[in-house]
């Protein structure tokens, strides 16, 4: 029995009316079973004396207790005397006995006499039989008299029909404390805000959406405060998105303790993010045991991180059994990490066939790695059409490998539009080849902002080509303010881009910052850049450290740098080591470029004449 206030109680969805002035258990300071027994005895004596009100109240008491045989004669006698509350309760009794039509007859009598509870019961009766017009009539009668359950039932009926008037009555029931109405009103407001957000043009005012969302939150809060576990879950999610993690955790905990598995799962993630994985595992376990696939996946991931692969696999399978397709995908990832390729393909396929886009992309990659390009392409396409950005990028790579640059660019552009950094880089490079610098710059900026060192370098090169020549500086002169292109060069350089490091070194040298130039040249050289090694040698030679310069030129020349080989030939010639000088001159001739080859050939011939003289 769900108590609905002091004046009435709901008994199996029907109303038992007991006016407070006629009956309240425990009045005059007596309570509990003893108080009820005394009150029942008093009303029984009055009923035997012919008191109609006493008959009605006594019948309600017996009906509430489940004594249908004892309640029926009292209620029939009071009903015959015109007591509308007794008529309503007699309907409840007959409905419990299975005499629905006879019950409806007595509810009609009470409803016509003005009983809102009977009108509600009669409306429910007609709705159960599919007579919606009659149901709406009686439920409206009940709702308009201020009956909370009548307002909720009417709202439910109207909402089922898609009637706009549903919200008004749902709101009326919610305002009178009906927790399910408060929850459903909040859900309706959530949907309304989402629809407005989707319909609103980009850049439009979102004040209306904010007000609707704020009201939805208030109703969630009211329903949650009354013990509605799903409302507590949604309230927790709202607070978590807002960053109010402490209060969100409290509502998740309230909902989880009431048996809401999704709240237990959400609480687990909140605890994990706070660093308490042990407590998180406890709540995930509770949620997973209640059939929450997301929690089972979380447990699987936790055990996989700990190296407990068998336990992880068991939880991933549990997630699959709960209908969570991520379980199959995660199981495939686990198999792939263990080198169990055939099993990984099996689980990727299972997830991909259900529409899991990342599984489709992973399956395509697996097939491509196995040389099955024909089998991979349809899965890439399916994943890309489902919204996988990585799959769109991979399709670009696939078509580029076939020489189909136009199709490749189409997929790169699609991935870039969704924020894929490497795709934006490829679009930028393609547009640069076509001479469309404006579009290229836009994509290169996106890629560079996303962390691509190559994009930052190419953007810097593009900007560098546009700027006017800077005034010449001698080493040691004060530096000037850095340009935007220098900032992009430095960003790429700091990410380990060797050509950018060389260029930053050159710009620093042009500013007269010898120390900065040497630092960047050295970093590039140690990373394998022959230009970095050559420039570092030049800088060291200029500073009077020719022996160390020769070491870096040797490294550059061994990597194929013709100018470095020529410099070494000159160094050895000045030292009088003519044979070694001739050897490096020969190397410079073969390495080039043409200007270097020409100078190296003249030096080689001169050294040869010296050696033969």
Describe this structure in words.
This protein is 76% helix and 2% strand. The chain is an all-alpha fold and 613 residues long. It has a three-stranded antiparallel beta sheet with strand order 1-2-3. The N terminus is likely disordered.
Quick synopsis:
It is built from 34 helices and 3 strands.
List the helices and strands and how they pair.
Blueprint: E1 2-3, E2 8-11, E3 14-17, H1 32-48, H2 52-65, H3 68-80, H4 84-97, H5 100-112, H6 116-128, H7 132-144, H8 148-160, H9 166-175, H10 179-199, H11 207-225, H12 229-242, H13 245-257, H14 261-273, H15 277-289, H16 293-305, H17 309-321, H18 326-337, H19 341-353, H20 357-369, H21 373-385, H22 389-401, H23 405-417, H24 421-434, H25 437-449, H26 453-466, H27 484-494, H28 498-511, H29 514-526, H30 530-542, H31 546-558, H32 562-575, H33 578-591, H34 594-612
Antiparallel strand pairs: 1-2, 2-3
Helix pairs in contact: 1-2, 2-3, 2-4, 3-4, 4-5, 5-6, 6-7, 6-8, 7-8, 8-9, 9-10, 10-11, 11-12, 12-13, 13-14, 14-15, 15-16, 16-17, 16-18, 17-18, 18-19, 19-20, 20-21, 21-22, 22-23, 23-24, 24-25, 25-26, 26-27, 27-28, 28-29, 29-30, 30-31, 31-32, 32-33, 32-34, 33-34
Supply the number of helical segments: 34
The N- to C-terminal Cα distance equals 121 Å
**Computed structural class:** mainly alpha
For the largest beta sheet, what order do the strands appear in spatially?
A: 1-2-3
Q: What fraction strand?
A: under 5%
Could you report the average pLDDT, rounded to the nearest whole number? 88
Total count of strands: 3
| Largest β sheet strand count, sense and barrel closure | 3 strands, antiparallel
Determine Rg (CA atoms, Å): 41 Å
C-alpha geometry:
elongated
Name the helicity range.
Answer: over 70%
Low-confidence stretches: 1-30, 473-479
